[in-house]
Structure formats: C-alpha cells, structure tokens
Design a protein that fits this description.
Distance between the termini of chain A: 34 Å
Strand content of chain A: 5-15%
Strand order of the largest sheet of chain B: 4-5-10-7-9-8
Number of strands of chain A: 3
Shape of chain B: extended
Radius of gyration of chain A: 16 Å
Structural class of chain A: alpha+beta
Distance between the termini of chain B: 39 Å
Order of helices and strands of chain A: HEHHEEHH
Low-confidence stretches of chain B: 168-194, 512-518
Strand order of the largest sheet of chain A: 1-3-2
Mean pLDDT of chain B: 84
Oligomer: heterodimer
Largest sheet of chain A: 3 strands, antiparallel
Chain lengths: 123, 917
C-alpha cells in the first residue's frame, strides 16, 4: 500500500477498514455488519446497502474476508463473513494509514476556531 | 497446508454445489431486506411503509446484484486457482517422495531419458548454431552467389562476362567505403550505379595464394582479390580501420589490404596499430587499411585477407577465362529467380556476341549464399536429429513400460487413494505430475549432458561444417530442452496414468489381478511393435551407411597415396618475372629432390589428387565441329617428367612422357581412360589428335601418346572425371600465368619426416623465403573420408543405442506381462499343460507383435532412408541385404527377449502361483 492515497482511495480504504474492524470481533452477516457500524458510531455513520455489499464481495475477492453459509436469527440461510489472516494484516495496514492521515491533517485543521466550534457542538 | 486446502475446497464447493451465484446474491439481499423491514417495523412504521423504506435504502437492486455477482465470480476463479496451485504443490511433493522411495526405478528411468534428451538437445543446439542462426550479414536473405550456367552446371565467371553484365556496379561500385563506425550497407545500393535492376551490388572475387612476408617465417596465405562493392554486399563493419573503397579500386588502387581477424590475431599479434602499416605479399607492398571482425568469412572459403581486383583492359575483353566467384546483394523485394532471369537474358546476349568464348553458356544461376555455404550440411544434421529423436521415442517407450510395471505394484496404493475420495482425474493428474517431475529432472540432467556432448561434437567433427564453432547452449536451446522434456513426460506418462486410474477401487482392494484381459495384451503388443519398428528404422539407416563406407574403402582410387607427400609452392612474380625463370626454378627443385636420400620418386604437377584439383578445359577431338555438344570438359594437368610414376597412376596403353617431348617437338598428351572413352569410344586413342588449351592453330592440336587409369581426384566418394596430362616442357608461355606460377611438388619415400625435410630443404636451397606447406596424401585421404566416417559413426552409435534400449525394453515389457500372468500360467500347468506347450504358447504370442514391429519398421525405414540417398555410395537406400540383415538381427534378439521371460515364467510351482497371486 502506498503511503499517499487519493481521496476516493481514502474513502474506500476507510470503508474497508470499518468492515474489517466489524469482522475482527467474529463472523457476521451483511445486515449484522451494517447494524454493528451504526451502533458503534451512534447511528451517525450509516453505510448504504448499495455500498456495503459491493465492498463485501470485493473484499472477499481480495481474500481479506471469506463467506460461508450459516443460519441467521430468522432461521434462514445467511452468508456469514469472517476475517482471514490476510484480512487481519490488511486491517493493521489500514489503521496505520488512517492514523498517519489524521496525524498529518490534525495540526492544520484542528486549531481553527470554526472546526473547534463544530467539534464542540457535536460533543 | 492440507487444512488450508480443505478449507478452500469447502468454500468452493459451497459456491459451486449450491444455487447459482446470482441466486445466492439474491438470497443474501432478500434476507437483508427482511431484517431491515423487521427493524423498521419495530421502530414504529407500519408493514408497507417499512417495506417501501427498506427497498429505497437498497436502491437499484438489479445493479447492486450485478456488481456483487461480478465480484463473486472473480472470487470463484481465485479459489479455483489457489486450490490448483495447492494440489500441484502437494502432487509434486508426493511425486518427489515416491521417486526417492523407488530408487532403482527412478535411476533407470532418469538415465534412459536423460541420455536421449541430452543427445537431442546437443544436436538441436548444433542445428540451431549451424543452420538456423542468422548469417552475420546485413541482409542474409538478399545475399546471393551468382555463377555462370555452363551446360546446366555452375561455372565461374570470366572477367569479360562479369564486367559486361554487372556494368556500372563493378567498375565504379559504391562511392563510399565502409568507414570505421558507419556501415554503409543500407545506403550502398543507392550509392552504386548498378546497371542491373535486380542487384544493388555485384562483386567478383578471385582467390590467390600469396606469400606473406611478416616476421621471421614466410607464410602462404590465401588472399581474395575483390572488386569494388564486395564489402557492401555483406555490410559488415570492420573491427579496425575501413574496408576497400569501390571508388579507389575503380581508380586503379591495387596496393591496399584488409586483414581477416585470424591473420591479424595469429600472425600480427593483434597489433591495434596495424592500420597504415605496410605488409609484403609475394614481394609487393600493400598498405593495411582495416581489419575485419572475428567471424567475417563471407563465403566460408577461409581467405585471410582481401586486396583489390583491378581488371586490365585485356581482361575486360576476355570472355573465355572463367575464374571469378561472384556475390551480389539483391535489391529489396527482388527474388533470386527474377534476378536470375534478368542476368540470364544478358548472358545469352553475351553468348550471341562472343559465340566462341561463350560457347555453351546458357545463362546464370543465382542462389542464396547462406544456402550455398551450408550445402549438404543441414540434411545430414537433420538426419542425425531424426535418429536421435527415434532414440528418445524408444527411451520413452521403455520408461512407459517401467511405469506400467510400477503402476501394477502401486495398484493398492492408488485404490486406497481413490477410495478416500481422490477422483479419477485427480489421480491421473497426480501420476502425470510424477512423470513430469521425472521428465524435467531428466531434462535438467540431459542439458548438463548436452553441454559436454556439444563440446565433444565440436571437437570430433571433421572440418567443413560451417559455423560449428559458434554452437552453444543458449536460451533458445534451453527452451527446446524444456519443451522436449515436457513432451517426453507426457508421452511416457499418459497411457500408464490413464490405465491406473481406470481400475475400479473395489476390484483392486479386493485383490483382483490386474494385467488380465484383452486391453492389457493390446498395450503390450503396441509397445513391443513400436520399439521394434523404431529400432529397425534406426538400424537400417546405420546399416546402409556402413555398407556404403565398406564400399568406399574397397573402391580403387586410381593412384597410391601411401608414402606420398606434396607441397604447393608458388613463385612470386617479382622474383620470377619470366616464364623461363619459373620453369627453371621448378626443374632445379625437382632435380635436387631426386638426389636426396630416402626419396624414391619426385616430380611436380599443376594438380594433385586429394590436395589441389587444378582447373579444367574444354577439349575438341580432331574432325568434329566446334559446338558445345562436342566439347569435352576435362581436368587439366601440366606435369613434370615422372609425375604419373610418382603417384603410381597406371599406364594402360602407349607411353608416358620422355625427354623427347620438348618444346618445339610434336605436341603430345596423355589421357585418362574416361576421357579416351568419351572422345573415341572403344577405338584405340593412341595417335588420335585433340584440340585444347591454346588458341594458336599450330599448337592447338595434341597427339595422344598414352592412356592412364582413372583417378578419383577428391577421394573415394568423388566421381571419375575425364582428365588429361600435358608435359610441362611443351607448356605455352602463358601457362605459368594460368597456374599463377604455382606447382605441387610430389615425392614418394618411406619416411614422412625425411620427405618433409627434403621438400623444405630443396625449395629453400632455391629460395629461402618461399613457404612450403607439406601435406601427406594419406592424411588428405583420411580427411576426405572424415565427414562420411563421422556421420556413419554417429548414426551407428545411435543405432546401437536404440537397439540396446529396444532390446531391454522388449525384455522388460514381456517379462512384466509374463509375471502378471503367473496365476494364469499356474492354472494351465495345474490343468495339465506341459511346460513346452506353455513356452510355445507364450513365444508364439510374443512373436506376433515382434513380426508386426518388423513389418512396420521396414515400412518406416523404407520411407526414412530416402533422406540418406545423398550420403550413400554403391548401395541403394532400399538395399534388400541391409534390410534383411537388420530385420534378422532385431528379430533374433527380440525373440530371445521374448523367450527368456517365458521360460522363467514356467519355472514356477503351480500351487504357489495360484495361491500367491
């Protein structure tokens, strides 16, 4: 992974990292992942289904996650996704890259009064 | 690794065995929708509103499903790939374990295959280096050799014909010579004012042996005199300095020279400051202007330097004296045929203009120069390559039979593997992996062997194979070896692998007997017949060449080379300007030789069989009209007294020359039997008169005083040509010019070293600066047969190797199948069949495929030996004796190979055989 990423790479990478994080706790089906993300971000982060599923299939193709049929809470067949060891490694890479990004951007953005006000308001 | 593989396999299975990918995606999205509706409903929305909301959140479902499906299919491909790679890793590891365990089988198969693959790879690298590699010319496909067509055969050009045909190309050629850095090959065409439409360059060359004075020893060197444009035909940059410029040659510059790399490196110590220095060639100074790179030997004539060829006005007008080799560069897009048509038209015009000089000239022959240089070599090499390929096929058949035998031993192992879930295809793949690992290992081993074999081949090969020194194992050869190994692996492995996998696990586990049933027998028949056929083809070829070699050994040469030494000595024009001086010098040398102890006979002549062929001339028997059909082309010899006696060319009738045959006396001639027969049939030739050699009416006619035996001038493989001998004393003044003041001294005696010393001494007493290259005719005879012998020896070696392999193979196959039938034999014996009867049964059964193989092999050999025709003397390519002998040899050995295992098979205890299985 290169250190510098374009904006769309950044966004995609963030979504990847979020999904991988969601699965690091154990296997989940697609709906479960979206619930987990919503719950963790206090409903602030809603990943669209139109984005989530393509991402899942893409990550599976990359070999970072793998899917197997299991039984959902409704008693119906569901595809459960699980992190592979390659996925774990990738997660570490994404987290580090995100941390680097934050570290680089924070000194520029954070001292600005407008940003500070926005942060305070959200809090 | 296995855990990983099983997991991947499970994942893949769940994808393939379940519903289609599209259905799985739909199912997943349906579930998501359902769960979302529940959540929304739980949040207070009514059922239909929740459904609407959920559907909206999923967006364009069809597009979404399509995107997911695309990715899913990619995942499937990836899984398949990793499973395959995993299985391959496993199979290779398994194969290695198996091969290491079965040490004797592995060693046997490895050695058999490596020998065959190594020999094939070595020969392929020779073919690539000699035949297939591009010639080091700027435009090898447009570089041609041009010859006059004289009565359907190639002949050298005369200066007049060359100048008239080449027109501007020859005289004013290209303006720029090839200067140090820039090759003018590309532009030479436009620079020259060629008067032919087909050629951008045409150049003539004449080979002259000259005496080079440089350093302490005078040396005889072969120089090529070339017209302008010669270097532009090839477009090769000089290593140092420049080449000979067309313009300066046209301006009459004669005293410049370009050196070959060999001459420069060996005689001048690779002196980089050589350019500009002056060397002396036959007492004339030449300024060195350049040195050519190492492999520049454009016509494979091994000339050592190049000097200008400038025609005098008299030479330009001379159309009858044919001594020039002509090379040319075709214009782009012009075919050799088109060029030949254009020049032939011009040639016929010249024949009409000079009907006397150009009698019998029918046109020109334009041929690719690379093809002309290679000549017969590609055919011979491809024959060897084919023979070595047959050996590889036999080796493959042997390894296949070894694998079959091993497969039988491994039936239980395979059955267990099949029973625990390995599919038939998987088993075949696994077995093929095993043979491929074996084949590639043999290929690697064989490539190592090839490195040694190529070195050996290059060292042992007789001279005359162009570019052989450039043979090497390069990436192309390695690729060939790799592909060949793969092909061989597949060839030996496929049938045994399919056969093993076809057994059903149940029968095998229950201990059923493999090797029973008609399909087994068919396979045995095919293997035995195939090996016999292949070996027969090989041996027939080798046998024909041996018969041909025996024939050549028995052929009379027409002279006795034993104890004869010869030296070609040329006197420089500067020291011997007058013909009389040349003649006196040679007479003195021969006289001195005759007085030396240990010399039984000494003489000299313009040509010596095996060493120097001399020229030829058209002869016209007295009383016949001057027309091309009546001219007899015969090899011409100017000889000193005692020449025929020294070589022991037998006198058949009349007399040879004596002291009375002097200048001013009756002009006399001795003819060979072939010439006498051509000229006068069965009539007595003594006293007949025949015209030759000179133009003046008074001296044209010569009286035949004797007939001598025919001589095979170029060794036993050469045809007999008409020859005639003239006494040196009656040679015309210009005779020495024809001969370039060069004669071949011949001496006969017992001690070669004494003879060589005598030759050098006698010459150096007359002129200490003259080089004396001594050749023993016995050595020359050996050399003339060397190529033939080498070819025969190689093919014989391959034939014997194939024969040995095939015998071992047949024995192995029969022994294996006999051992498989132990139980059947036991039952038969228990039921009262006598041993003799069973042996007879087995032997007859074995003979069927043997006979089929002999028939098949004879047919194949009849088709294949056609390619040998050019190498055979005194025996036809379908010689029945050879074929019968080879078939008998193979049939006999094969029969023994069948009988022995049959005898052994019956030497068993029936009870044990039936119980033991």
């Amino acid at each position: 992974m290169s250190k510098t990423k374009s904006t769309s790479d950044r966004l995609r990478g963030t979504l990847d990292a979020l999904i991988l994080t969601a699965l690091s706790g154990g296997p989940l089906h697609g709906y479960g992942i979206s619930r987990w993300l919503a719950g963790r971000s206090g409903k602030a982060l809603r990943v669209e289904e139109g984005t989530l599923y393509p991402a899942l299939y893409r990550l599976e193709r990359l070999g970072w996650i793998e899917a197997e049929w299991g039984t959902s809470e409704l008693g119906r067949r569901a595809r459960f996704y699980r992190l592979t060891s390659a996925g774990e490694r990738q997660l570490a890479v994404e987290v580090r890259s995100f941390a680097d990004f934050v570290a680089a951007v924070s000194p520029i953005l954070l001292p600005r009064p407008a940003v500070l006000a926005a942060v305070r308001e959200r809090a | 690794m296995t855990g990983q593989e099983n997991r991947l396999r499970r994942l893949l299975r769940s994808r393939i065995l379940g519903p289609s990918i599209a259905r799985q995606v739909e199912e997943e999205l349906d579930l998501h929708l359902e769960l979302l509706v529940r959540e929304l409903a739980a949040g207070g929305l009514d059922e239909s509103a929740a459904r609407r909301e959920a559907a909206a959140r999923l967006g364009d479902r069809r597009a979404l499903a399509a995107t997911c499906g695309r990715q899913a299919r990619g995942t499937e491909r990836r899984l398949r790939g990793s499973i395959l790679a995993d299985e391959l890793r496993q199979d290779v590891a398994y194969a290695l374990r198996q091969l290491v365990r079965a040490r004797s089988f592995t060693a046997m198969a490895l050695l058999t295959l490596a020998a065959g693959l190594g020999a094939t790879t070595a020969l392929w690298s020779v073919v690539e280096g000699v035949v297939l590699r591009r010639f080091p010319f700027a435009h090898p496909d447009r570089t041609v050799l041009v010859a006059e067509n004289w009565r359907g055969g190639d002949s050298d050009f005369s200066a007049g014909n060359f100048v008239d045909l080449a027109g501007g190309t020859a005289s004013s050629a290209s303006t720029a010579s090839t200067a140090g850095t820039a090759s003018t090959a590309g532009t030479a065409g436009t620079a020259s004012s060629a008067s032919t439409r087909s050629f951008s360059q045409l150049a003539a060359m004449q080979f002259s042996p000259l005496n080079l004075a440089w350093g302490p020893d005078p040396a005889r060197v072969l120089a090529a005199r070339v017209t302008g444009g010669f270097f532009e035909v090839f477009g090769v940059r000089p290593l140092l300095g420049r080449t000979l410029g067309g313009a300066e040659i046209a301006a009459g510059e004669e005293s410049i020279a370009v050196l070959s790399h060999a001459l420069w490196a060996e005689r001048m110590g690779a002196d980089r400051a050589i350019v500009g220095k002056t060397i002396r060639l036959s007492n004339r100074p030449y300024r060195v202007v350049g040195v050519m790179p190492e492999r520049f030997d454009p016509t494979a004539s091994h000339e050592e330097l190049w000097i200008p060829l400038v025609f005098t006005p008299a030479q330009r007008a001379q159309h009858d004296d044919h001594y020039l080799d002509v090379v040319g560069l075709l214009r782009p897009g012009i075919s050799a045929q088109a060029a030949q048509a254009e020049l032939s038209l011009g040639m016929r015009r010249l024949a009409a203009r000079f009907p006397q000089d150009n009698a019998g000239r029918q046109g020109v022959h334009v041929a690719s120069l690379p093809a002309a240089i290679l000549g017969d070599v590609p055919r011979r090499l491809y024959i060897l390559l084919g023979a070595v390929g047959l050996v590889v096929l036999i080796a493959c058949a042997n390894v296949a039979s070894l694998l079959l035998a091993r497969g039988a031993l491994r039936q239980k192992e395979l059955a267990v593997r099949a029973a625990i879930g390995a599919g038939g295809r998987r088993l075949v793949r696994q077995m093929l992996t095993e043979t491929t690992v074996l084949g590639l290992a043999a290929g690697a081993l064989g490539t190592g062997l090839a490195l040694a074999l190529v070195k050996l081949f290059v060292r042992l090969a007789p001279p005359g194979i162009p570019r052989l020194g450039e043979t090497r194992i390069d990436s192309g050869v390695l690729l060939f070896a790799f592909l060949l190994s793969l092909a061989a692996s597949l060839l030996c492995g496929l049938v045994p692998a399919l056969r093993s996998a076809r057994q059903s696990p149940q029968t095998l586990l229950r201990g059923g007997m493999p090797g029973e049933g008609p399909s087994r027998d068919r396979l045995r028949h095919v293997l035995v017949a195939g090996e016999v056929a292949l070996a027969l083809t090989l041996l027939a070829g080798a046998g024909l060449l041996i018969r041909s070699a025996l024939h050549l050994e028995r052929l009379p040469l027409g002279f006795d080379p034993a104890g004869v030494l010869t030296a070609r000595v040329g006197l420089p024009e500067s020291g011997y300007p007058q013909p009389r001086a040349v003649e006196e010098a040679f007479e003195q040398i021969v006289a001195r030789l005759g007085q030396r102890p240990g010399i039984r006979a000494a003489s000299a002549g313009s040509g010596v069989p095996l060493a120097d062929h001399g020229g030829s001339n058209g002869l016209l028997p007295e009383g016949r009209a001057f027309s091309p059909e009546n001219l007899i082309d015969a090899t011409f010899h100017l000889v000193m007294p005692g020449f025929l006696e020294t070589l022991r060319i037998p006198l058949l009738s009349g007399r040879t020359f004596d002291a009375a045959d002097r200048a001013g006396g009756d002009r006399v001639m001795v003819v060979s039997r072939a010439l006498a027969r051509r000229a006068w049939g069965d009539a007595d030739p003594i006293g007949k008169r025949i015209a030759c050699c000179e133009d003046a009416a008074a001296s044209r006619l010569k009286t035949v005083i004797g007939v001598v035996g025919d001589v095979r001038t170029s060794g036993p493989a050469s045809a007999v040509r008409p020859e005639f001998y003239l006494p040196m004393a009656q040679a015309p003044q210009e005779g020495w010019k024809w001969l370039q003041r060069t004669l071949n001294l011949v001496v006969r005696g017992d001690s070669p070293t004494a003879l060589a010393a005598a030759l050098r001494g006698a010459v150096h007493e007359i002129d200490p600066t003259l080089p004396v290259p001594v050749v023993a005719l016995a050595d020359a005879l050996r050399r003339s047969l060397a190529e033939q012998r080498f070819h025969t020896a190689l093919l014989l070696g391959l034939g014997l190797l194939g024969f040995l392999l095939a015998t071992v193979g047949i024995y192995g196959v029969i022994a294996y199948f006999a051992s498989q039938r132990t139980r059947e034999i036991g039952i038969r014996m228990a039921l009262g069949a006598s041993r003799a009867r069973i042996v007879r049964h087995l032997a007859i059964e074995g003979c069927l495929p043997l006979a089929a193989g002999l028939l098949l092999g004879t047919a194949a050999a009849l088709a294949a030996t056609r390619w040998l025709e050019g190498s055979l003397y005194g025996v036809t390519a379908t010689d029945p004796l050879t074929f019968a002998a080879v078939a008998a040899m193979l049939g006999g050995t094969g029969w023994l190979a069948i009988l022995l295992p049959a005898l052994r098979a019956t030497r068993i205890d029936p009870k044990q055989a039936i119980q033991g299985g």
